[in-house]
Design a protein that fits this description.
This protein is of the alpha/beta class. It is globular and about 80 Å long. It has 15 helices and 17 strands. Belongs to the NtaA/SnaA/DszA monooxygenase family.
């Protein structure tokens, strides 16, 4: 008996401030005007995607003391944009990255519960931690937390937020219109949390939302991050979008669920994936090469090399050879607020490897950055891309993908018009939304918040 085909989950990431974006293309639009967000969201909903995903930037990144080029338009507030998008969409899920290091459980729970009400149950929270003191300078506490403490805080932060969401068991507060008074259950919204990270008590002021709680995403790839996802998340935002790496990650994370009393289908694996479409595979491959060169200008290549060298390399020719000097291993770093810095834990070894690659292939600095950097995950005709995505999902390399187009806001249009219909014809992607909430779209059960509240009270 053949195994039934898995249904594919698709989402879209608005690529406002990342290395995927091609700013120089004439089709590129604003990354801060609401019309761009609205177009992107409406396209995703027209294609019956599960959700739209927004990242969050808490500080403008710097390199050499100057604002990094991808941040020159600023980084608008995630909650504000998602709340506005709730008014121009009906079914599309609305997912936002909100930091657990510098925020407080009460304010974040209140914002997500409000968004869930505004959207009729379509909110999701990507729980992240902050890793650097540079970002912390914007906040009251300043500084940063070591990795083990960041995840300890994140775990208690999420548990505390769940206590707040669960503090409303139903319609506990009812107005008596004849007398103008309220009949209140004394336990409505009441919470007490005493822990290492938080010591708070009071009454949560937002009634239970349509989903009970927002869907919880997690994006960390460390062992602590994987364990956090297995214990607490509904979905994980993975960076593994190749077949072999995806299968290894999928197997590892899913295998961790049993210790927490969870089934494999209670955590979705959703890698980010970029794509390039054309009428034929050959045309798409040629277009993909052009896109990569657009994504990595000479100036961008030098800045990327500075992540490893930790030196000002602006005097080098990006079309010339790699520097013959070694990386600076000093405590301070030329790039501030850039996650890429953490990717190169042994700069000397990385520099040696890159020099060998460049010499063997006669690559310039720009060539090297293009060839070793992010490549498009799905390249080809619509039929090829649809087939490849389905193959990956059926082979348990993913449960679906969060698509990151290189053009904003129109870069999702061709995928919606040409690839989605092919997946629908194969019977692996919905033709209509069957439910109203994001949990419905993702096949996730609504939490027993009433039961959780009773258990917490006892």
């Amino acid at each position: 008996m053949s195994k039934p085909q898995k249904q594919i989950h698709l989402a879209a990431h608005f690529p406002g401030v990342n290395n995927t974006t091609v700013w120089s293309d004439p089709r590129a639009g604003s990354h801060i005007e609401f019309s761009s967000f609205a177009h992107f969201a409406r396209t995703a909903e027209r294609a019956k995607f599960d959700f739209l995903f927004l990242a969050e930037g808490l500080r403008l990144r710097e390199q050499g003391g100057q604002i990094y080029d991808l941040d020159v338009v600023g980084r608008p507030d995630t909650f504000t944009i998602l709340a506005a998008l709730a008014a121009v969409t009906d079914r599309l899920g609305l997912t936002g990255t909100i930091n657990s290091t510098f925020n407080e459980p009460y304010e974040v729970a209140r914002q997500f519960a409000s968004l869930d009400h505004l959207s009729d149950g379509r909110s999701a929270w990507n729980v992240v931690t902050s890793w650097d003191a540079f970002t912390g300078e914007n906040f009251r506490r300043g500084g940063f937390l070591p990795q083990e403490e960041r995840y300890a805080r994140a775990e208690e932060f999420l548990a505390t937020a769940h206590e707040l969401f669960d503090s409303w068991q139903g319609d506990e507060i009812v107005a008596d219109r004849s007398t103008g008074t309220f009949l209140s259950d004394a336990k409505a919204g009441a919470f007490v949390h005493e822990g290492r990270q938080f010591d708070i008590h009071g009454r949560f002021n937002v009634p239970r939302s349509p989903q009970g709680r927002p869907v919880i995403f997690q994006a960390g790839d460390s062992d602590e991050g994987r364990e956090f996802a297995a214990s607490s998340a509904d979905a994980i935002f993975s960076r593994y979008a190749t077949l072999d790496a995806g299968q290894a990650f999928y197997t590892d994370v899913k295998s961790r669920l049993a210790k927490y009393g969870r089934r494999a289908d209670q955590l979705l694996i959703l890698p980010a994936a970029s794509f390039v479409l054309a009428d034929t595979d050959a045309e798409a491959e040629e277009l993909a090469k052009q896109v990569r060169r657009q994504q990595v200008s000479g100036a961008t290549a030098l800045k990327h090399l500075e992540f490893v060298w930790n030196r000002d390399l602006s005097g080098y020719d990006p079309e010339g050879p790699l520097p013959d000097i070694d990386p600076d291993l000093g405590e301070s770093h030329i790039a501030r607020g850039r996650a890429q810095v953490r990717m190169y834990r042994d700069p000397l070894a990385t520099a040696r490897e890159w020099r060998e690659l460049a010499e063997a292939n006669n690559w310039s600095i720009r060539d090297l950055v293009i060839e070793t950097g992010n490549r498009q995950n799905f390249v080809g005709s619509p039929a090829t891309v649809a087939r490849t995505i389905n193959d990956y999902v059926q082979a348990d390399a993913a449960d679906g993908f969060i698509l990151v187009p290189h053009i904003t806001p129109s870069g999702l249009d061709a995928f919606a018009d040409k690839v989605v219909p092919l997946l629908q014809e194969q019977g692996v992607f919905r033709t209509e939304y069957e439910g109203t909430t994001l949990r419905d779209h993702l096949g996730l059960a609504h939490p027993d918040t009433a039961g959780a509240a009773r258990r917490a009270a006892s």
